Amino acid sequence: xxxxxxxxxxxxxxxxxxxxxxxxxxxxxxxxxxxxxxxxxxxxxxxxxxxxxxxxxxxxxxxxxxxxxxxxxxxxxxxxxxxxxxxxxxxxxxxxxxxxxxxxxxxxxxxxxxxxxxxxxxxxxxxxxxxxxxxxxxxxxxxxxxxxxxxxxxxxxxxxxxxxxxxxxxxxxxxxxxxxxxxxxxxxxxxxxxxxxxxxxxxxxxxxxxxxxxxxxxxxxxxxxxxxxxxxxxxxxxxxxxxx
Length: 244
Fold this sequence. Notes:
With 244 residues, this protein is of the alpha/beta class.
């Protein structure tokens, strides 16, 4: 077994990217895997709620362990920070900044990363990851920009009616490869838009995705709508997404 201290030796580069769509600078953090070499090329995991994925999800530590102990291919991880005051307006499909945020992500962020890091420029090598509404916007990115994303990692995604309405417009989603985790204790989740039964919402969304032939890995486990639940499930989810 590896010396645990190597898991905590992380290289994380902080960047700021000005978005013409959002009219602001957006802080980014980019994890460089052990043995990082600019002459090589890497798959990329793009995370909504970037600060939380790194601080509460411990994604960099998890990735180190997966690389060292489980032979998972090294990847870059891009965390896109968000201001909690505008998070819902950017991540929710009916939010006033949602279209601008999606355009920022697809038309500014991904090209920026691929210009500045040895990121593989194929949809098969990109994963869009998010928790709650971050899972929502990640799925919508895959639906609206199929040439950029078809791999989505969702931790308790907030898949409400607006997302199902969007899915209804699709006929064939066999291109979509998606991991969905939902907690059995998420039947009364309080949000700034109201209280929702996320378990029921995810089950309804799962049916629509399956009807459209998406390649879906769906898990229900005891857990609440908290990073304490998601953090422990994240390594297995990453491993599954990186395999395919």
